[in-house]
Amino acid sequence: MFFIFGISSGRKDLDFRQTMICTVCGGYGRYEVYMEFTCFSLFFLPVFRWNRVYYVKSSCCGTLYTINGDLGRRIARGEPVTLREEDLQLVKTGYGGHGHGKKRCSRCGFETEEDYRYCPNCANPLD
Q1: CB atoms inside a 10 Å sphere around CB 122
Q2: How far apart are the C-alpha atoms of 72 and 61, rounded to whole Å?
């Protein structure tokens, strides 16, 4: 008899969106929440997860925050939650906070740091 097992890391996007005005770039966007974890699998089926970390990412500039596990579990269960500034611990500021000059296509969402006038993905004019 043999067993096929493994340990891997994973990511799960949670069904949570909250509009906000970003304190880093000043843009209007939304918070998106996801969870990263380590998983033990047996016969390619996940058996249990541990090391869960809940992240919040701003859609406007990509600034990344963490939130505590209790709040993250409430969001994962689908409970109504409103994120406040004091709930967020800054991990990394996004490109909007440092003026890197990234451009984002309004049609397809493609991001580039190059000085293109048109999106290389869909040919939409870049602002």
Answers
A1: 11
A2: 22
